[in-house]
Amino acid sequence: MKIAVAKEIEVSERRVSLIPDTVAKLVKQGLEIYVESGAGEKAYFTDADYEAAGAIVVNDTAKLWGEADILLKVSPPQERENGSSEVDLLKPGSVLISFLNPLGNPIIAKQLADKQITALSMELIPRTTRAQSMDALSSQASLAGYKTVLLAAAALPKYFPMLTTAAGTIRPAKVFIMGAGVAGLQAIATARRLGAMVEAFDIRPAVKEEVQSLGAKFVEVKLEEETTAAGGYAKEISEDSKKRTQELVAQVVKNADAVITTAQVPGRKAPLLVTEEMVKAMKPGSVIVDLAAEQGGNCACTEAGKDIIYNGVTIIGPINLPSSMPVHASQLYAKNITSLMQLIIKDKELQVNFEDDIVDAACVTHGGEIRNQRVKDALQTVAV
Fold first, then answer.
1. Full-model pTM
2. Contact yes or no for 68/36 (Cβ under 8 A)
3. pLDDT for 126-152, tens place per residue?
4. What is the distance between the alpha carbons of residues 93 and 70, in angstroms, rounded to a whole number?
5. Known catalytic residues?
6. How many CA within 13 A on the CB side of residue 236?
C-alpha cells in the first residue's frame, strides 16, 4: 500500500500533512510512505528529513498522485495553473484524506464521487471522546485562537497587562471575545496570560463554566430556542435572537479595547455579530480581529485577508491563521491524520468500515456516490 504526502499548491498554505516524526512511526509499522519533493519546505521540514525518516521522496507530481493508494493533503484539491484540477491526478478507487470544505464547496464532492474516490473529510470528524486524537478542526482552531490575540496585541496602541511604574499605573486592556468554541477558549486563555481583562460571549449557555474557569467574565443572553447543534457546535439562530444578541453585546463592544470574533457555522455564512454601528461607537485605536473573515466575517466591516482602518478602528481579517504557525500546525495535523489512518488500516490493508461512527461521519464519497446527506443537500442548493 502506497501512502503519499502531497505538496500544497495553495499559496497561503504552509502546512504539510505528515511530518518526519509521524512518517518514521508509520514506516516502522511496515507502511510505504512517499513524499512529494518540497512538501515540507514551507513548514521547515526538508526532503532529507523525510528520507532520514524512511520516506521515499518523489519529484514527479503526476506519478505520486497517480500511484497513491492513499493521498494525504491539508487543503482541498486545487485548480492547477494549466486549468486542470488536482482531482484529475487521483487514481480511481484511491483514498483522499484532507480538509475538503464539502459543505462550503459541495462541487468538490461531486468531482471526487465521479472519479470513484473514497474521500474522508477532516472537517467531518465527529466531536466525540473516541475521535479526539483525530479532531483536526479543534487542533487547528486552538492555534488560530492563540494567534488572534497576538495580532490584537500587536495592533493595539496600548499594553495588554496592568503595569505599575514610577510614571503611574497603566490599566489593563479590555478584551471581548465572541464565540467560546475551541478557538475562543484558547483566545481567552491567551489574553488572560497577557494580563488583559477579558469578557466573553457565546449563544450556548453550556460554555459559561468553561469561560469562567479561564478567568473571563461570561456575557450571557437568554434565548428561547436551541442554540447548540450536533457535535456541540453553535447552530444558526433566528433573526429575532440575532437582534437580541446584538443589542446585548453592543455596549460591551463599545467599551472594549480589542474585540476578537470566532463564531462560525459549518457550511454557512458567518453570523453577523458586530454591526457597522457598533464599530462606529468604538474608541479610536480599538482593534477587531475577525477569525470568521473567510466565511464572510462576524464584523460588517471585515475584508478577508486585509487589515483596514474604519472610523479609527483597526479591523483585521486574517486568512488561514493556523498556516502562519506551520511547524506546530503540521505537527498537530499529522497526529490527527495518522490517528485516522490507524483506524482504517489494519495489518497493512485498507479497511473502510462504515459501521464505525468516525469513518461513517468523515466519509464524504465512496463507490461513486456522495454519502453525506448534508453535502448532498448543499449540492442541490448549488445546482438550483
1. 0.92
2. no
3. 999 999 999 999 999 999 999 999 999
4. 10
5. 127, 132, 135, 138, 233
6. 9
